Amino acid sequence: MTRRSEIWQAPTRALEHMPPQSGNTVNGLGETEPRSPSPFFWHEPKYHDFGDMQGYTLGIMYGLEDAGEIREAFCINENFRPGTESGRASDGQFIHRGPDPVDVAPAKVHKTAVEWSQEVKQFALAHHADVVGIAEMRPEWVFAGFEVRERYVVVIGVAHAYEEISQAPSLPGNNRAIVEVGRQYTRAAMAAAELSNFIRGQGYETTCYPGPTAQALLMIPPAIAAGLGELGKHGSLINRKLGSSFRLSAVATDMPLETSQPDTFGADEFCLRCQVCTKACPPDAIYEDKQWVRGDKKWYVNFDTCIPYFAESRGCGICIAVCPWSLPGVADRLVISMAKRRDRSGPG
């Protein structure tokens, strides 16, 4: 397990790109009243004040001489120029991943919500997805100023190869972890695009939400509602089979669907006691206790200390790599262990 020997201090070259306003303030840290999330770091710079830091981060990730394999894994457009206005996060940064969208069929195929849900899940799992779930859209999952018109969202998860993500962080000479992240973001985008076309072929509207650049949809909350896991102390989702080592994409649709149930299997309780990611995080960005964020008390990662290290290390990923739930063969044993603990503790 990676352990920090001392707290990492951000260099001036990184801090000079941070705006005066705290990213934690934008995210709603300390707010006890619910509100929509604000557009942020992975949105286009016109929506927020972090464009300079975004350009600096992408410049390090994609702009260095040895970054060709990173650019290839993320399907970066050859015209992308890190550090420029065009070289910041936007849909145009990426070469289209997956098939082009097809027209919606003029006539709807009619089936029950249960039947469609089974078909949608089966199709997704046969086309790149490792886990899939369905949730009914909620306004608090939509970024302020954006709109999601469809009623349901199908959330897809694709797993990392642990031997690759375990190499995090990606430093010069060893790009394995960030290349693996790019591969799985691309696979997740392909899964969403192919599922979207399947649904459109049945006569129903869709909108695709691939990563890593943000659009209208805040991804993790619907993933939790769709049964893909619990929020971990490191701010990422923990799935009972995949641990923290996976990426998300989604498809919103008006196809009638049956929603999945949230999956509570003990990850949140485990995080209350576990110190692995907090001790491994170089900039000490992971809060040991839950915080109020936009009316919800939950695990939170300090953006202002996390993102400079994220930039300097080409995407970091240490917290995902060291999470006990991500270790091969461990998740099943942890699920059993947490179930036994709940049985001993009794109700409540």
**What radius of gyration results from the CA coordinates?**
20 Å
How many domain regions? Answer: 1
Helices, by number, come to 13
Question: Which class of secondary structure composition applies to the elements?
Answer: alpha+beta
What sort of overall outline do the alpha carbons produce when their principal axes are compared?
globular
Name the helix and strand elements from N-terminus to C-terminus, one letter apiece. HHHHHEEHHEHEEEHHEEHHH
Number of strands: 8
Largest sheet features: 4 strands, antiparallel
Whole-Å distance between the termini? 33 Å
| Unreliable spans | none
In helices, the fraction of residues equals 25-40%
Instruction: Summarize model confidence as the mean pLDDT.
Output: 93
Instruction: Give the oligomeric state.
Output: single chain
Strand order of the largest sheet: 1-2-6-3
Proportion in β-strands: 5-15%
Describe this structure in words.
With 348 residues, the protein is of the alpha+beta class. The chain has one domain. Helix content is 34%, strand content 10%. It has helices at 12-15, 23-27, 51-63, 68-73, 113-126, 162-165, 176-201, 220-225, 267-273, 276-280, 303-312, 318-322, 331-345, and strands at 131-136, 152-159, 206-209, 230-231, 237-238, 246-253, 291-293, 296-298. The strands form three sheets. It has a four-stranded antiparallel sheet with strand order 1-2-6-3. It has a two-stranded antiparallel ribbon with strand order 4-5. A hairpin with a 2-residue loop joins strand 7 and strand 8 (296-298). It is globular.
